[in-house]
Amino acid sequence: IVDELANAKEASNIAITASKGVRVIATAHGKKLSELTNNKELLSLLGGLTPVAIGDAAARDMAASQDNVLGVLGNKMSRVQDKPSPFDDVVVFQGYNDLMVFEINEEEAGHSASSSCLLRDFMDQKPIKASRRWMNSEGDLM
């Protein structure tokens, strides 16, 4: 369990640990998912993105089928996912007793269920499945 991942070195250490089969629970500061996706040092926690130059034909093909590409940035630029995420789920705390759990259904997404799929769908501006959870006054998770 790691609290408040803050930089690229910590994110890299988590990825190495998770790649060895260790289940990791970690937190990173941010009020919404876009704050994590815009944080270049922590983006690797979701799989990371690399800009790539592409030709016109490839840009048209990739715009039509976003299977391996995370959005077309322009006629000649795109982003591809670096690697799988070390995490299976992303939880965003909305308040002290209120949170959103982002889970991707493997069959619907068409690829493995991981937060890497969450990143792909988020960057492609596709609908993202999430479930809201909260703790009631008795301390039960609803």
Care to give the gist of this entry?
With 142 residues, this protein is of the alpha+beta class. 27% of the residues lie in helices and 26% in strands.
Q: Key terms for this structure?
A:
142 residues; alpha+beta; three-stranded antiparallel β-sheet; 5 helices; 27% helix; globular
What does this entry look like structurally?
- There is one protein chain.
- It contains 5 helices and 8 strands, in the order E-H-E-H-E-H-E-E-E-E-H-H-E.
- The protein has 142 residues and is of the alpha+beta class.
- Strand 4 and strand 5 (77-81) form a beta hairpin.
- It is 27% helix and 26% strand.
Question: Total strand count, please?
Answer: 8
Radius of gyration: 16 Å
The biggest beta sheet is recorded as: 3 strands, antiparallel
Overall shape: it is globular
Strand order in the sheet with the most strands: 3-5-4
Helices and strands, in order, run as EHEHEHEEEEHHE
Distance between the termini: 23 Å
Number of helices: 5
Q: pLDDT average, as an integer?
A: 75
Structural class: alpha+beta
Beta percentage is 25-35%
Helix content: 25-40%
Uncertain regions spanning at least 5 consecutive residues: 67-74, 104-113
What are the SSEs and their pairings?
Elements: E1 2-5, H1 8-19, E2 26-28, H2 33-37, E3 49-53, H3 56-64, E4 69-72, E5 77-81, E6 90-95, E7 98-102, H4 106-109, H5 115-123, E8 130-134
Parallel strand pairs: 1-2
Antiparallel strand pairs: 3-5, 4-5, 6-7, 7-8
